[in-house]
Amino acid sequence: MHAVDQHIPFSEHGSFVVALNDSDDKHQYAYGDNVKFVISQERLADYQSAAAFINSNGVDMCCIQHEFGIYGGRSGVYLLGLTRLLKVPYTIIFHTVLAQPDPIQLSILKRLADRAAAVVVMTKKAVQLLRSVYDITSNKIKAIPHGVPDFNKLDTAAVKENLGLPPGKILLTFGLLGPSKGLETAIRSLPAICAKHPDVQYVILGKTHPGILRNFGEDYRTSLMQLAKKLGVQDHLIFISEFVHERKLHSYLSACDIYITPYPNEAQITSGTLSYAVGAGAAVVSTPYWHATELLRDNRGKLFGFNNDQHLSSIVNELLGNPSELRSLKRNAYRYGLSLRWPKIGKQYAQLFKAHIKTEEKPSLPEQALMQVTSSLSRTLTWKAFEV
Q1: Do 115 and 192 fall into the same domain?
Q2: Cα–Cα distance between 84 and 79 in angstroms, integer?
Q3: Are 193 and 290 members of one domain?
Q4: β-sheet bridge partners, residue 239
Q5: How does residue 150 score in pLDDT terms, banded at 50, 70 and 90?
Q6: What is the three-class DSSP state of 2?
Q7: Are residues 237 and 89 both part of a single domain?
Q8: Sign of dihedral through CA atoms 251, 256, 257, 259?
Q9: CATH number for the domain harbouring residue 103
């Protein structure tokens, strides 16, 4: 929003935000004044009311951020209650594109895309999936990379001292903690790394994912601590349970010698944390999930096998023992990251919005049956019920 604001002034044009709440309490979060409407995630009527609110407030273009788990109903079907009532064009940004969606997920995403003025994804792989799996026409798809802050280069030694990090080599992973992040692999690689580089510290920065925390507390973080203790590397592991804002995150990325993303699943179409690391000019070592294979090509990073701690330790030891190669990775990442800076990405979005605000209203699609079926809690969902 701030990036687009540089090209289409947000408040000057009367723009506003519609927020999604993960509870029925509309006052649960202290939103800023730019949030003019709040939707409770599992209230279908709120989505319909939001559409009416948008239609009646002089909106030229609606930008929808789509991710699974944000919208209510099975597979987020309640979002259709908003889009089918909109009388203004909308652009939808798909943060995840599944290679093997179930029939309901496929149907919902196709309907969202069919009515959209434009569909935005962040990787070439996502473009290919939209064409081949979801049968979305190429002229509707726009690829815009994940943006990163306008980072400045910082003095590594000074930043380490300011953050209170110990002297020595720093490995870093950041983001919300959960079993899908593959942190066990990184911890299992530490004994072999510390044997050659005893001054290594592995920093895991981030709070536990709210959904994990709500259902399981800090059990996952505790299990990682127990694994480190079992392997005898507990003194080389630092947990920082914070949600850090961009400036402090930039400091950690500048302070680290190597940034690690050990995700265990190939089907990770976009990773904001990976984009931020590249944008800050970090030396990245990652598993070859889809986004990493694109972003780290041309010697902008190194890849290791899924769940392969031996491969990871081998690459990290090689890089820590070869400072010139480490500097080369950082230099290549930083140079490429200049093209991902938010001012440039924001300009692409502003141009896209301007190009489609005059889009003619499309005829309504037959989605009512889909809405009725998926909002019913007592009826079994079947693919047959969605055929039109």
Answers
A1: no
A2: 9
A3: yes
A4: 204
A5: confident
A6: helix
A7: no
A8: negative
A9: 3.40.50.2000
Range of the domain at 231: 156-339
Burial classification of residue 363, based on how many CB atoms lie within 10 Å of its CB (0-12 exposed, 13-18 middle, 19 or more buried): exposed
User: Which has the closest alpha carbon to 99: 51, 140, 122, 132?
Assistant: 132
List Cβ neighbours of 323 (8 Å cut-off, separation of 6 or more): none
**Strand pairing category for 118-121 and 35-40:** unpaired
Tens-digit pLDDT profile for residues 41-70: 999 999 999 999 999 999 999 999 999 989
Q: How many domains does the chain have?
A: 2
Q: Are residues 229 and 324 in the same domain?
A: yes
Task: Report d(CA 1, CA 157) in Å as an integer.
Answer: 33
106 lies in the same domain as 7: yes
Q: Does 300 lie in the same domain as 280?
A: yes
Report the residue count for the chain. Answer: 388
The answer to whether residues 259 and 301 touch, using CB atoms and an 8 Å cutoff, is no
- The reply to whether 160 and 92 lie within a common domain is no
The per-residue DSSP string of 79-124 comes to HHHHHTT--S-EEEEES---SS--HHHHHHHHHHHHH-SEEEESSH
